[in-house]
Every structure is written in C-alpha cells, then in structure tokens.
From TrEMBL, chain A:
One of its GO terms (cellular component) is cytosol. Belongs to the CTU2/NCS2 family. Pfam families: CTU2. The keyword Cytoplasm applies. The keyword Transmembrane helix does not apply. Pathway: tRNA modification; 5-methoxycarbonylmethyl-2-thiouridine-tRNA biosynthesis. This is Cytoplasmic tRNA 2-thiolation protein 2. The lineage of its organism: Eukaryota, Fungi, Fungi incertae sedis, Zoopagomycota, Kickxellomycotina. Plays a central role in 2-thiolation of mcm(5)S(2)U at tRNA wobble positions of tRNA(Lys), tRNA(Glu) and tRNA(Gln). May act by forming a heterodimer with NCS6 that ligates sulfur from thiocarboxylated URM1 onto the uridine of tRNAs at wobble position. Prior mcm(5) tRNA modification by the elongator complex is required for 2-thiolation. May also be involved in protein urmylation. Keywords: Cytoplasm, tRNA processing. It is found in: Cytoplasm. Its main location: cytoplasm.
UniProtKB/TrEMBL annotation, chain B:
There is a cross-link at residue 99 (Glycyl lysine isopeptide (Gly-Lys) (interchain with K-? in acceptor proteins)). The keyword ATP-binding does not apply. Keywords: Cytoplasm, Isopeptide bond, tRNA processing, Ubl conjugation pathway. Coiled coil: none annotated. InterPro entries: Beta-grasp_dom_sf (IPR012675), Mopterin_synth/thiamin_S_b (IPR016155), Urm1 (IPR015221). GO terms for biological process: protein urmylation; tRNA thio-modification; tRNA wobble uridine modification. C-terminal thiocarboxylation occurs in 2 steps, it is first acyl-adenylated (-COAMP) via the hesA/moeB/thiF part of UBA4, then thiocarboxylated (-COSH) via the rhodanese domain of UBA4. It is found in: Cytoplasm. Acts as a sulfur carrier required for 2-thiolation of mcm(5)S(2)U at tRNA wobble positions of cytosolic tRNA(Lys), tRNA(Glu) and tRNA(Gln). Serves as sulfur donor in tRNA 2-thiolation reaction by being thiocarboxylated (-COSH) at its C-terminus by the MOCS3 homolog UBA4. The sulfur is then transferred to tRNA to form 2-thiolation of mcm(5)S(2)U. Prior mcm(5) tRNA modification by the elongator complex is required for 2-thiolation. Also acts as a ubiquitin-like protein (UBL) that is covalently conjugated via an isopeptide bond to lysine residues of target proteins such as AHP1. It holds the Pfam family Urm1. HAMAP family: Urm1. This is Ubiquitin-related modifier 1. The modification 1-thioglycine is found at residue 99.
Length: 407, 99
C-alpha cells in the first residue's frame, strides 16, 4: 500500500512499515504474530498442573467467541507443532469442550457454526448443555430459595415441580432472576461448574480458558464491584488452584483483546457471536448490565491511558489468596471460599435489596409463619459468599436452583 | 466513490448480519475530502440496525472497536481524520465481549 511508506517502522525488525499498534509499540504483521505466539507459549509452558504420574490431559474451552477462537488455534499448534519443530508435548491428550447455550439464547445457527469450527480440528469434542445442571439422572434432589423474616433459606423442592424438563427449569431459573447483572453472574457459575464437571468426567487435569488481559481487567473490576474481591486470585489469577484435582489456566492473560482479534483477522479465523443477556437487554432498552458498563469503562480508559489494562491485570496477578480462604468452607453456589469475616463483614455493610426484601416480608407476617413450620428450610446466610447472597436476594422465591447447589 | 466495508468479531450483528459490503459515498463532505469520521456517520445513518450506543460513543467510534484501513491499524494512520480513497477497505472488528 502506498501509504505504508510514511508509516513508522516496526519496532522489532526495524525494516518493514508497522501494521498494528499494541500499547505504545508498533509492529509489522509477522513480528506481531511472532510476539503474540511467543507470549502464549511461554504462559502455557510455565503454567502448573496437578501432580500426576503421567502428563496431564488438556481440556480447551471453546465458546466460539474471539478469545476462545484464538485459544483453540494456539493450543492446537502447541499440541501438534508442524514438522521440523521439536516435539515437546506438555500435555498427553487435548480435548475440546463446548458449552451449548442454545437452551436460553435459542440460536441454532450459532451452534451449527461452532460445531463446524470444532470439526476442523483433530481432537475429541465434548459438548455439555447448560440444562445439564438440571438433569434428573444426575441429581435426585433440587433446592429452591425462600426469603422470610428469619432470613434467607434453601429448601428441597417438591417432587411435582421437578417433573419439568431440564430445559424448562433452566429457562425458569433465568426468568426468576431479576437483573441482567445477576443473570450473567448465574450463567458464569453454571459454566464454571460444567467446565469442572467435564474435566473430571474426561480425565483432564488442566482446563485452558480464553480470558484475555482486557477481559481479566474488566472481570476484576466487575467482581470487586459485586463484592467478590475475596476470591479474586482464584477467578482471574494466572491459574486457579481452587480445585485440587483440576487447574484452570489462562494462557492469553497477557494479550489484549485487540491483539487477539487482530491475530484472528490475520489468520482468517472466523468467530461466532453468541448472544448474551446484555446484548439481548441492550436491544430492547437503555438498561445496561454492570458487565457492559464496566467493559465500556475499561476500553475507554485504555484508549486514553494505554497502561490501564496491564496495570489492573498485573495488580490482580500479584494478589495472594488469603490463608483463611483456603481453609474455610466453600460457597454453596459458586464454590469460592467464604472468609472468616464474611458474615460479620456482611452485617456491617448494607445490602440494599436483601434488607428491603426482609423488611417487606416482616410487614407481612401471616405468610411467614406457614413457611417457618416447614422443617425442610435451611438457613444459608453463612453458606454463601457475598456475590451469591446478592444473587439469591435478586431471585424470586421458590425458584429452583441448579442441581450442583445442595444443602 | 466506492468503499469496501467489513464487519467482524460481532460487529456484523450491528449491521443486520452483513459481513462485507461495498458502499458508495460522496467523495466530499461539506466541501472537504471524505474522512473515515464522515463514513462512520454515514454508516450510522444508513446501515446501522442496532442501538447507536453500541457503535458510537460521543462523537467517535465506541472504544473497543478495532478499525483497520487496508489491513493497517487506523491508529497508525490518521485515525478518524484519515482521508478516504476510492476502493479503500475499512474493517471494523469488535474486541468487546458484551457480557
Ligand atoms: Zn517487523
Ligand atoms: Zn458464591
């Protein structure tokens, strides 16, 4: 291109005109690609795995989105390097996991496109459906949620309610959750659970997920604003060791989403856009979820101050899990550790919605007495982390929760 | 003049699912040569099918959308001030997650 002559020369080869600006550095196409792949490989090479006799199996989570599209290609290249490259496999076998979200977003075209991409790779593919968390063959009992003057309770649902299909229960669950932010949060919990379940069922010790530096920065701010700061290192650190038998690694954690989409564009890797609760909500109204707003905030800030994303990401990377966090019990919904001080802290902090719900119910004491008689009720206020308490308070009474939530 | 516009990474959803299109726009806007910023307003008025906030913020494109001019990052050209030439290819790629 003629205009290329005037462009700044690539910082790496110092020969070709640059094509892309990453933070303050300008790269030509091939130097960009080399730099991008090198960062990925070194992140993956340095990542730990649970101690086992043999080389661990790797499960690559693929959603169809930009990050996981790049992740799939990079992991595939890492696992099966071309001829002439020294074969140094870190993983025994690679499997692809796809979470089918069509039950709530009803996008069959997206499903088809996702499967077409997966079929291009020579790896075994496992598909889990979101509604699997309501499978009656897997779970014999489900719990539902009740709030009354005595607090927040879970109880075993009645038999007749659970005769509904898993898909119906899933749809009802999301209908029973009021805000978009809480819906997105519940979806994250379900996906996290299915990821771990798929890894265990298929003998995979390591799960690779596509979180980029940009996504980690957004997620960190989002989780802090949701009150989940306590479990941050587990959720967004270099690797999660929350579970002893399965590690979650994030080899794209030092790449900006700009780098990822540019890489996909260079290689002609097509991605699939799956609708989200935010995109659905945005189409109809001005109400934006916290996730959407945080993402807007971070990308806007990063444009003005290119150090925003790396600063947030490296700060989060340095966080250490509080010693208390590993020894304490886990949250019933998200499995994150609940700290010693969580309940005390919660009492000192006003939770608007929860307090209001309690107040409303106190005023209507006739209904409550009937509920209290039910011996089935288990108080869960000290068994949930702050985020899940907020989620539960944003959920309609009698909503049936996914099967992995047990009392 | 003819401009090839491309949408990917989810951007196509804002433009009725169209991934590639050649558009004809005036070579001048208000007596000045057409810039990318003029074309962005043109796209908003003529092709955008979804909420404008998902494409434009303030008076420019929403942060988090990567713009390539003939495969080159627009930050290395003049950004929104870039003066369009006939048959230029302008690519819009969303880097946003949306969640
Ligand atoms: Zn170079
Ligand atoms: Zn929780």
């Amino acid at each position: 291109m003629e205009s290329g002559n005037q462009r700044v020369t690539c910082i790496k080869c110092k020969v070709l005109p640059s094509d892309i600006k990453i933070r303050q550095a300008n790269f030509c196409k091939s130097c960009f690609q080399l730099n991008f792949i090198t960062k990925f490989k070194s992140n993956l090479a340095r990542s730990a795995a649970p101690q086992t006799e043999k080389r661990p199996n790797l499960l690559v989570a693929f959603s169809g989105g930009n990050s996981s599209r790049a992740l799939l290609q990079l992991c595939s290249d890492f696992q099966t390097p071309g001829s002439g490259t020294k074969l140094q496999q870190k993983y025994n076998e690679m499997l692809i996991l796809h979470l089918d979200e069509s039950a709530i977003f009803e996008d069959q075209d997206a499903e088809k496109s996702i499967m077409e991409i997966i079929e291009k790779y020579p790896f075994k593919c496992i598909t889990k459906k979101l509604e699997d968390v309501f499978s009656s063959s897997r779970y014999s009992k489900f719990v539902s949620k009740t709030t009354n003057s005595k607090g927040l309770f879970f109880s075993h649902s009645l038999e007749k309610e659970t005769n509904e299909s898993p898909k119906d229960l899933l749809v009802k669950l999301f209908e029973g959750i009021k805000s978009t932010t809480s819906k997105e949060y519940m979806l994250e919990c379900i996906k996290h659970h299915l990821l771990l379940e798929a890894a265990r069922e298929n003998g995979c010790e390591v799960i690779a997920v596509g979180n980029s530096a940009t996504r980690i920065a957004v997620k960190s701010i989002l989780m802090t604003s949701e009150g989940r700061g306590f479990s941050l290192p587990f959720d967004v650190g270099a690797e999660s060791t929350l579970e002893e038998d399965v590690y979650i690694v994030r080899p794209l954690r030092s790449s900006l989403s700009k780098e990822i989409v540019y890489y996909n564009n260079l290689l002609g890797l097509e991605s699939v856009t799956i609708p989200t609760f935010s995109t659905k909500a945005n189409a109809n109204s001005k109400i934006m979820s916290l996730g959407y707003l945080t993402e807007n905030f971070i990308s806007g800030l990063d444009l003005e101050y290119s150090a925003t994303v790396p600063t947030v990401t490296s700060t989060v990377g340095k966080l250490k899990v509080n010693a208390n966090a590993t020894t304490n019990k886990k949250c019933l919904i998200c499995l994150a550790p609940i700290g010693d001080n969580a309940s005390t802290w919660r009492k000192n902090v006003t939770i608007d919605s929860l307090d209001n719900t309690l107040k409303e119910l106190k005023d209507d004491s006739s209904k409550i007495d009937e509920n209290i008689k039910d011996e089935n009720l288990v108080n869960v206020e000290n068994s949930l982390c702050y985020s899940c308490l907020s989620l539960a308070s944003d959920t309609e009474n009698d909503t049936i929760l996914p099967g992995f939530v047990q009392i | 003049m003819n401009i090839n516009v491309e949408f990917s990474g989810g951007m196509e959803l804002l433009f009725g699912g169209v991934a590639k299109k050649t558009i004809q726009i005036s070579p001048t806007f208000g007596g000045n040569p057409a810039k990318i910023s003029d074309m962005i307003i043109w796209l908003k008025d003529n092709l955008l099918t979804e909420n404008v906030d998902l494409f434009i913020q303030g008076d420019s494109i929403r942060p988090g959308i990567l713009v390539l001019i003939n495969e080159v990052d627009w930050e290395l050209e003049d950004g929104p001030e870039y003066e369009l030439s006939n048959n230029d290819t302008i690519t819009f790629i969303s880097t946003l997650h949306g969640g």
